[in-house]
Amino acid sequence: MAPSPPKIIESCQISPPTGSVPETSIPLTFFDVRWLNFAPVERLFFYSFQDSTSHFTSSCLPALKSSLSLALQSFFPLAGNIRLAPETTNKYEIHYVDSDSVLFTVVESDQYDELFGDHPREISKLKELVPRLSKNESDERQPVLAIQVTLFPYHGLVIGTSVHHSACDGSGFVTFMCTWATICCTSNSKVIPAPTPVRVEFDRSIIHVPDSIYTTALNGTSTNFNLNNSQPDHQMFIASYKLNRERIQLLQQVLLREAEKRNVTVRCSTVVVTYAFVWVGYVKAKSTISENEDAHCVFAIDHRQWFQPPVPESYFGNCIGPGIVRAKVKDLVGPNGFFEACQAIGKVFDEAKRVGIQNAKDWRKAVLEIASKKPFGSSGSHRFKVYDVDFGWGKPSKVDIVSISYSGAMAVAQSREEEGGVEIGLYFTQRETDMFTNYFEEGLRYMSTLSN
To answer: Among residues 95, 164, 165, 382, which one is catalytic?
Structure first.
């Protein structure tokens, strides 16, 4: 029997409590405007839910909506809109006025088996769980956040989010999700302590950069907010892989042993060994890349700690820049590919720590120069506590970043099972998935022989 098409149960707008937030304009910094025309970040939080639709709508939905309203009081920019600031030609801001809101949609579906789990899942199916973030055609404002809850009666539910990257980075958004979930648990009368008031810092004057860097970052940007909402390819999949703490320690041991043999110093962090191991497999799976070419890896570097004084963790906005790594394909696919990748990635981290944002004026040009070469990228972080987002149904069974379909990036998240592990999501064809899976399993076995 063919699955039934998804059915919309409710669609509404959720605002912070009336009168709780004054009209506010928050200027975008150069860290923010870099993302103006990028696709939204799309996350899916999967949960087990063993009750009926009627139970959900009567017992769970009211708490979800009321707690979202209260969470938006602290994170009100998510209910606002991005716009060109009045009487300016190139200054953008997030503008919030009372009654601004977030689109909140509830959908019922019966396609549970195809979507839940770690097996490769068709991207077009996953995209049905993601809300569309569309601009206001009447006044050219760009909403910041949309949310969709998809219910699979007696099986599970998924909370899908689309957030505009110019409003915040992943750290701030996951903090919002944890806040919403905690308030929801409390309003459901669960035996959980009342939520501690969230301190969120919106002051953009913390980010001290020359105006010229802002202008450079904005160069070529328009008010069209040309977000990429293209239709996904039915032949593409998101596949998940896990590096537990033991496997990461194994990779670190192999790296340190090779560095000792070569008498060189290396950065041996979880990020370095994870990105390096996956990057090598990615290059091998993408058989269209010639060994005579350069391979490129782009990942986010958090600059909060390198400002003086450091930007507080409570800052809600963007403070990340690109780290661009280059390496010869022939070196990455060779016998010492993992070490070569680790060295290349570690050097970029070390350079970023040394120079901070001194080269920020060149970031846009550097990214554009390699964009056509489809670099290996990353989205998310193993430091984001995505599996702490518990609305009262238990922690998520799975968290995906499906917007990696726009760029082909690697999705990174904390491990659900243990502290110190990492989950990886990759956007591949079936053939590439098979090739990477083989590399992943064989590569770890080979690493085990090197560490003995």
So the answer is: 165
